[in-house]
Design goal:
Blueprint: E1 2-3, E2 10-11, E3 18-22, E4 25-29, H1 32-40, H2 42-48
Antiparallel strand pairs: 1-2, 3-4
Helix pairs in contact: 1-2
Length: 60
């Protein structure tokens, strides 16, 4: 399992909604909205540690 860096959810790499490569490392996402947010500003989520899963909203 991987942790979505945007919302903090655990994500099965095989079932992830999206994947991004940043600085040689793969990141997996629970929803395309999380991938899009990460792709726009990866450092925000990597340095800030993302949000808690409780703040996970707006995903469809």
């Amino acid at each position: 399992m991987a942790k979505d860096p945007v919302c903090g959810m655990d994500v099965d790499e095989k079932k992830a909604a999206g994947k991004s490569d940043y600085m040689g490392k793969n990141y997996y996402f629970c929803a395309m909205a999380c991938k899009k947010a990460f792709d726009q500003n990866p450092d925000k989520y990597l340095k800030g540690g993302g949000q808690k899963a409780g703040g996970h909203s707006g995903h469809s």
